[in-house]
Structure formats: C-alpha cells, structure tokens
Amino acid sequence: MQLYREAKIEQLFFTEDKPGVVFLMNAASVDEAKATISALSLAAGGFLSHEFLPGRPLKPLGLLIQGK
C-alpha cells in the first residue's frame, strides 16, 4: 500500500489464468523496479516470485508527448 501511495505502483490487477497480481509500476528502468520490489518484506523473505516486463508508451502517443 505504501508503494501505491508513493506512486511507485500505479495500478494493480488480479490475473485470471493463475494466482497472483500484476503491478503496473512507475520506474525509470527495470533495475529500479526490481530494487523497489526486492525491498518488500515478502520478497526479502523469499515468499514472492516475480517477473519484470519493460514497457513504453504506444508509438503514436509517444509522438504526441514529444510535441512532434
């Protein structure tokens, strides 16, 4: 909940095909996201498995953001 309040986790989703959740994170890099999640007590205790997938804005949206 603290990471959500700090805007490091922007959205949370439950998965339908297997147990777990998906965090949409606000991080500058995958390494930053890994460091954030690794600091959680469940991860530090070995009770959390995770996978990281980098993302980026849709290309047309990215062009609008850049002002082109």
Number of spatially distinct domains: 1
Largest sheet: 2 strands, antiparallel
List the helices and strands in order.
HEEHHH
How far is the N terminus from the C terminus? Answer: 37 Å
Radius of gyration: 14 Å
Count the beta strands: 2
Q: Tell me, what's the shape?
A: globular
Helical proportion, percent range: 25-40%
Which class best fits the helix and strand makeup? alpha+beta
Helix count, DSSP H or I runs of 4 or more residues: 4
Give an overview of the whole structure.
By secondary structure, the chain is an alpha+beta fold. The protein has one domain (2-65). The protein contains 4 helices and 2 strands; from the N terminus they run H-E-E-H-H-H. It has helices at residues 2-5, 30-38, 41-44, 59-65; strands spanning 9-14, 21-25. The protein has a two-stranded antiparallel ribbon with strand order 1-2. It is globular. 4% of the residues are buried.
